[in-house]
């Protein structure tokens, strides 16, 4: 198991899904920061349910003795062990010079990152909730709840007059926003609904600009990268 102080490379621990890990992996590729992905499988259990013991029984207890807040994702950098996705994102973004280059950009990064996280949490509530709720709510989620988040982000870009959420260059907020636009595009297609990519041209531009980054060329076909499932096995949209 990965432990602080063991390795040279940064290590990201997470389930073997895109989930909260993709923005980290994309940022590191773009910045040329080597990252080891320590992925945890979730197996089907005989008779139903899931076995996540590689995380819950094996690695979590010793890591919790070092950082009692431990959760997935976590990041190990030398002797440092960080958990909670948003502090992990910001820590890495500072390392990758993707956290804004002026105080004005930094606060724009923090606000838009938080806004994107609200959107992600709305999706997570829907897809990991009860099947009954999912069936009852997915359409209004796509038609209305998710739209309110995307409309805010589109309007933000309009008002700020910048191509990316905090300025002229992509930051961590754009990478998480990219992931959410992409995931909602796939979700909408699966459900026969209009894509956010057609409705929000400024977000669509961020999506295509990041998709075209040469450093990410290998990511799109990586079985441990973009090709992973979006959500875990118990989700109603994977
Ligand atoms: N607020 C936390 C939520 C983390 C979370 O919910 N992690 C889920 C996967 S996305 C998990 O299964 N954690 C493992 C655990 O509870 O030990 C974050 O943003 O990192």
UniProtKB/TrEMBL annotation:
Keywords: Transferase. Residues 8-100 form the GST N-terminal domain. One of its GO terms (biological process) is glutathione metabolic process. Conjugation of reduced glutathione to a wide number of exogenous and endogenous hydrophobic electrophiles. PANTHER family: GLUTATHIONE S-TRANSFERASE (PTHR11571), GLUTATHIONE TRANSFERASE (PTHR11571:SF222). Belongs to the GST superfamily. Mu family. This is glutathione transferase. It comes from Hemiselmis andersenii (Cryptophyte alga).
């Amino acid at each position: 198991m990965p432990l602080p102080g063991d390795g040279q490379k940064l290590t990201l621990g997470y389930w073997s899904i895109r989930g909260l890990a993709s923005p980290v992996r994309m940022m590191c590729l773009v910045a040329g920061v080597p990252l080891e992905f320590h992925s945890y499988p979730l197996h089907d259990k005989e008779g139903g349910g899931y076995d996540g013991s590689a995380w819950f029984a094996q690695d979590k207890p010793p890591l919790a003795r070092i950082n009692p807040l431990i959760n997935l994702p976590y990041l190990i950098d030398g002797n440092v062990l960080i958990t909670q996705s948003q502090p992990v994102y910001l820590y890495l973004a500072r390392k990758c010079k993707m956290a804004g280059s002026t105080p004005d950009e930094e606060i724009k990064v923090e606000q838009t990152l938080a806004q994107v996280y609200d959107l992600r949490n709305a999706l997570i509530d829907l897809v990991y909730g009860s099947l009954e709720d999912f069936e009852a709510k997915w359409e209004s989620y796509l038609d209305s709840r998710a739209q309110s988040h995307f409309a805010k982000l589109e309007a933000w870009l309009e008002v700020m007059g910048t191509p990316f959420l905090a300025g002229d260059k992509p930051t961590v907020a754009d990478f998480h926003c990219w992931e959410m636009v992409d995931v909602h595009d796939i979700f909408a297609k699966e459900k026969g609904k209009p894509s956010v990519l057609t409705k929000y041209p400024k977000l669509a531009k961020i999506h295509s600009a990041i998709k075209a980054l040469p450093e990410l060329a290998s990511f799109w076909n990586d079985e441990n990268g973009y090709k992973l499932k979006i959500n875990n096995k118990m989700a109603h949209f994977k």
